[in-house]
Amino acid sequence: MAYAAVISVLETLIELQDESKLQNIPYPRSEVRTLENNLTFLQSFMKAENPGVEDLEVEIRERMYEAQDALDSNISNFILNSKSADWVEDNYISSFSRDLEKVNADVGFVTAAARMLSPIDVRPLLLMPPPPQVSHRSSIVGREADLFRLKSSLIAPSSALHTVSVFGDRGIGKTHLVQTVYDDPDIVWRFKTRAWAEVPQFYSKKEVLITLLRCMKGFGSGKGQEIAQDKLAKRLSNYLSQGSYLIVLDGVCNPEAWDNLKELFPDWGNGSRVMITTRPQEVAQYAKIGNKGSLEKILPLDGEEPWDLLQSVVFRYKACPEKLVATAKRVSANCKGLPLAIVTIGGVLMEAGTKDWEIAASSLTGCGDCDELIDAVMSLSYKSLPQYAKACLFYMAIFPNNYDIPLSKLYKLWIAEGFIDKNDKVNSLEKMCEECLSLLDKRGIVFVSERNHLGKIRTCRVDGVYHDFLKKKAKEDKFFHVINGYMSSFPDKTWTHERFLIRENVQFADGDVLKSENPAPTVRSMLFDGAHEQNPMWVHLDFKLLRVLDALKIRFYGFPDEILKLIHLRYLALTYPGEIPEEICGLWNLQFLIILRQLSSKTSEVVSRLPLEIWNMSELRHLQLIGRDLPAPSTSSPKLENLITLLDVSSHSCTPEILKRIPNLKKFGVRIESPALDAAEDMSFLSHLTLLGNLESFKCVVMHPDFESQVASPNPNVSFPATVTKISLSGCGLSWENMKTIAKLPKLKSLKLRWYAFRGSEWKQEGDGKEHKGFPKLTFLLLEDLDIQSWKTSSGHFPWLQNLVIRHCYKLKEIPAAIGNIPSLKKIELVDCNSSALKSAEKIKEVAQQSRGHIGVHFHSSHDD
């Protein structure tokens, strides 16, 4: 029965991928490929009558039934519902993906058990052709044996802490191979905690700690710098003590780095592992803990492996055209067995003609060592990019190697620099940014390092080897210049550079910088990326052509008047507590204006507004104004048609007169400092938000709520436009009655409620669950620091909920049992909740395991930090 069940699921998978069958049903390709690979192995394993087959037959059969159920139900869902008016293909794909992720986790577990019993190295891991939207980085052709060895080292039956040192030449594929193992379902299941950190030559132990903790969700992106290093180390130790862990340290350069970091990883006797990647063998040997470690040397591909890999990248496992075979094999041979070179050049040649193949073969001929070869390949890859993508890629190299670049900032800088332009197909600059990043990702040049809870990319980074190439080329082209140390002025030789990144904030001495009557005429961008300055500084900013000025980390004596003359500015970010001069409205090119306050600055009780002339700044796309507001418009004030983001204003910027003049706003953030001081600071503005017909994301934070004395509507009319997908509320003190309006929003996917966002002991949702009564698209729900005691709901209120997070809700007695009946639910996370709530979550988990499948339940106490 088990063997027949495997064959049945395999047949379904084959049909699903056959475009001539099943009405071209869309499906999650990555999950399907993973499942097919595991099933192919199980088929061979069972057919070979390996010892131990009988012991696994029942488990294999049950997993196959689950897989078949998941496949069939989703196929039926598509066929029966795809014609209806409210059908959303993205939601269907998301649901299908969730189902198969769970199936793959279970099948991966039984497959791992079968592999341990198999006396032969069955090679099922050769991936199917990746679809066009998937990066060719996923290919592991020729690395099946290496992958099997690394996995075996990690799951070896030993309780002692082991190090696995992976070493080899530049471009040999160490990081990608380790990443593949790191994400393998068998490994994910084996280790309770996994974390990954790069260790560049000039690394910071504190940054490594922060990176590891972020992987463990110890805190979010951008957090952690304010915590002392010893406290971070203690927090990491507490996380690692909770079960077996896998830590990856990528790019360790010398033995000293390992000596400095190894103390962070205690041996709890639970089978934990630390993997490092490095080029020098001596570093790998040094990191080996006596007999409790292993060395894994990664060698170049040989034999037919380079040719197979090139074909898989370029032709998607189809046959190479006969007229190209000879030239293509020359290209393959010239890559010297280096996967990085093969994959990169393959990305260049995916749609190339015969002439391009000849150019590639000739360009790689005669490269002496690996470094010369990789530089040649990188150069070809860069040259083959569309023109609009080259500058965008170059700009990413301004950031440090292995630095997680926030996309929210990167896209703004790309647009401000003028790298992005609309075309006939895409008329949104932000969409063009997304297309550019997608192209770079497909080419294997950049990769995603963090996503938000809705799966959207939050940060990305440039591939390390490509970063080295870009830095070298940027220096040759004088594209940007990085200043790493304190100095009184720019050195003369840098005046020809257009962009400066100052990693140690520069104190320019008055006069020293003025080397001529027109100093630094080509400087277009200045980004100060050092530590936040505690004392005021004088910084020379008299660069007439400056387009981008990011000085958030500089503290000024007063508003720098030089800025008012920089009429080419498109991006201006300052930290300044005082009044903004009206002359700033003369910066007619300004698209991005960010003016924050120092954290220690006391917010004035007087409402501070920007000058009225701000309404004439038609190019504005992004405004972030802590402690300031938009002015009330006059009857003749024009609309800010291009403004799509407005952040950190108070409710004084939420009048109907103002909202009507920002009709295309998509992201809106309200920050109320002290509502008890001003009768106008109440929640009644929430009734005006329907005037924003394109709003997608809304956030409101009341910083110092005083529910006893503040003047607020006891039950304000809360109303949101139907376009909203994300809502985050904190300190608002709303009644749970207002939730009925929010629950009806048709596109809402994320709801975060913090610090008495809603008040009241009971949240009761109407309906018996027989039909969907609310939150039709919600996938993420956060309840934090609320006084709620009782929550009554049914699964029908949250048909698509995936993640439920409850933090510091000490009075909440239990999580409704109906939550466990939500088919899409994947995880419940509780932080500092009472024991009865924890028990209810465990009960939900137990019931789910007996019926609908696994739900992850995670507890955490801040006392452990």
Structure description:
It is globular, with a radius of gyration of 29 Å. With 865 residues, it is an alpha/beta fold. Helix 21 links the parallel strand 16 (645-649) and strand 17. Helix 2 (29-47) runs parallel beside helix 4 (89-117), helix 3 (53-81) packs antiparallel against helix 4 (89-117) and helix 18 crosses helix 19. It folds into six domains: 1-124, Single alpha-helices involved in coiled-coils or other helix-helix interfaces, CATH 1.20.5; 144-297, 3-Layer(aba) Sandwich (Rossmann fold), CATH 3.40.50; 387-463, Orthogonal Bundle (Arc Repressor Mutant, subunit A); 480-602; 638-759; 768-865, no CATH class. It is built from 23 helices and 28 strands. The strands form five sheets. A 16-stranded parallel sheet has the order 9-10-11-12-13-14-15-16-17-18-19-21-24-26-27-28. Strands 2-3-4-1-5 form a five-stranded parallel sheet, sandwiched between helices. The chain has a three-stranded antiparallel sheet with strand order 6-8-7.
Radius of gyration: 29 Å
Overall geometric form: globular
Fraction of residues in helix: 25-40%
Q: How many structural domains does the protein architecture include?
A: 6
Query: In percent, how much strand structure appears in the residues?
Result: 5-15%
Mean pLDDT: 80
Quote the CATH topology of the largest domain: Rossmann fold
Strand order of the largest sheet: 9-10-11-12-13-14-15-16-17-18-19-21-24-26-27-28
Structural class: alpha/beta
Unreliable runs: 120-138, 508-519, 676-680, 709-713
Q: What's the architecture of the largest domain, going by CATH?
A: 3-Layer(aba) Sandwich
Q: How many angstroms does the end-to-end distance come to? A: 50 Å
Q: Describe the biggest sheet?
A: 16 strands, parallel
| CATH homologous superfamily (4th level) name of the largest domain | P-loop containing nucleotide triphosphate hydrolases
Q: How many strands in all?
A: 28
Level-1 CATH class name of the largest domain: Alpha Beta
Query: Number of helical segments?
Result: 23
